[in-house]
Amino acid sequence: MVQVDAKGRIVLPKELRERLGIAPGTEVEVREEDGKAVVEPEPDPEQVIERMERLVGETGAESDLKPLDDVAPSARRHREAVERGAREGDR
Hints:
Oligomer: single chain
Structural class: alpha+beta
Strand order of the largest sheet: 1-2
Radius of gyration: 20 Å
Number of strands: 2
Number of domains: 2
Helix content: 40-55%
């Protein structure tokens, strides 16, 4: 068992940190789930990029896309951000 200190902090046992890949400086998400506190390490940025690339690839060929002039401004900004991210991933 671990204790919560006066500032609300807890220390995760070393074995648990090692199994979860939580090293000093790792960002974690803390949320309530079914009345319990869940601590989960944020995903590795490389995994996020790979997932985005896979999702972009699954959405179809670029030729299937409407010209940017024919889409809503919010969709245009989203598409531009995805394309920018894909280009940066190619570097």
